[in-house]
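Reply to dn_fold:

You asked what the input looked like. This is it:
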Amino acid sequence: MVENLLALLRPRFVLPGADLSVQFAAGFALGPPNGAALQLVRQAGAALQQSKAKPAHAPHAYAASDERDARNRIRLATELQTALANDEMVFHYQPQVDLETGDLVGAEALVRWNHGAFGLQPPQRFLRVARKPAHC
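and this is what came back:
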């Protein structure tokens, strides 16, 4: 059913003066007919986050690990807000050198998180969460 719905949305939309291609992500959860609706909504939201994380935004069925991942993203986003308030972000500068002349031609700024409990954290630990608001 999810694949059929996405197939209906896949064609390009032609509007006066515009030809739009829209990409959709889909997360879904299945449960008993008279199950807890709020729990299914939370589970579908966690599955949606997993779909958004995939390059092609393939539909994603809820798995128990999705909820754990969602809790970890929320916790990490909260910790990042605290890190910013506590000035825990540090920059390291990497010089860029012209190999033929040896001249310094620039520098690359590399951000690291000096976490209060876990020390220096590499960017792959936090950048995916830092790019989007926690509610997305």
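The chain has a mean pLDDT of 85.
Hope that clears it up.
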